Structures are given as structure tokens and as C-alpha cells.
Amino acid sequence: MRKVALVVGAGDATGGAIARRFAREGFATCAVRRSADKLQPLLDEIRAAGGVAHGFGTDARKEEEVTALVERIEAEIGPIEVLVFNIGANVPSSILEETARRYFKVWEMACFAGFLSAREVAGRMVPRGRGTILFTGATASLRGGANFAAFAGAKHALRALAQSMARELGPRGLHVAHVVIDGAIDTAFIRDNFPQRYALKSEDGILDPEHIADQYWMLHCQPRDAWTHELDLRPWMEKF
Hints:
Structural class: alpha/beta
CATH class: Alpha Beta
Mean pLDDT: 96
CATH superfamily: NAD(P)-binding Rossmann-like Domain
Number of helices: 8
Largest sheet: 7 strands, parallel
Distance between the termini: 44 Å
Oligomer: single chain
Low-confidence stretches: none
């Protein structure tokens, strides 16, 4: 059986690039989105390049769906060697207008879903004594900005989850890392909604998803005597 890379939140930018990167290295890539039909272009691209890809429509906020997903992959495809949790949920709102329902949903997507995915996969990795779990963070993982209370709270919590897991599971052979993406990414959303920022692409002023994916692969390849727990990625012109 091939080793498996599970990418939860395999969207059109970073998540898709990570899925393609691990597929190029011979992994069977399992890509997850809430809507399975949106995965087809990514699956077709990976397969056309000679890789192995499987797509799953799963709501990562639902415990029973996540449990069933991991059980199916382990039984039918192969051992999960790498988990990448890449769900965003970047939804701005004034704290004066934020609703309890939306605040809770952002937390479910950006944090709780990460807990469910990581718990289920870690339970398979620990008996094998190996595995890599990578969480995608954001600027909001480190500081809360105006109009981003829900997102910052969820991303802070995801970072804390990653820290706790690394301290508990590192001695048991699992590499747990948190990646802070601090800057705009080359996506259709940035292109269409922030054209001035997107114009910086020609100056390497926004993050290329393929280059982000290279760093995730690097983290997986690190020897355990030199593991990185937190890696921050930003364009050279980004302030921090």
C-alpha cells in the first residue's frame, strides 16, 4: 500500500498545491472538501501527472463524518503518514454585529474541525510510532485584528492545539507543526477583491501556493533531531 497524505481543506489554492506536492512524491493523496464535486479538477490534474488521488466530500465539523473518513482511508487506501489541516474560515465582522451562530461556526471550521481530524489520525499514527501533522495558521494565529475576533479566537485556539499535541506526541514519534501564513496568497479571491495587493505579484509581494506547499513537504522530511514546530511564511515586503 502507498503511504497516504490526507489534506483536509484541499481548496483551489494552498490546499490543492499541497495535495499536488505530496502526490508528486509518490503519496496517495486524499483530498477533502465539503463539496466533493469541487475536487474534480484537482483530482484530474494529479492523475494526469501520474499521481494517485482520491476525493472525499466531508464536513470536517462533524465527528461521525471525520471518524468514518479516517477509518475508510486506513482500511481501503493505506496508512495515513501525513495530515494537513488547511481549513480557513476567514470571515470578517465587527464585534458589534457578530452573531453567536457565525462566531461558533468560524470556531467549528477553523479549530474544532482541526481537533477532530488530528485526534482521529493521531490515534492511528501513535501505534506506528511515526507520522506528520501540519496545521495551517494565519496572521490571526498571533494577533487579533479589528473585525476579526471570531477568526483570531479560532486560530489562536488551533495554534494552542498544535502546541499541546507537539509536546504530547513528539516523544511518541509524531512531528506536529504549525505554519503561520502571514500575507496575501495568490488566489482568485485576492485577484478579484484586492487588485492593488494582487498587482504586487510581479514583485513577489504575495505568496505563491506552490512555494507554500514546498515548505510543507520540507517539514515532513525533517529529521527528528531537527524538527520545526512553528514556521512563518510571508513575502519579503510584508510587515511583521
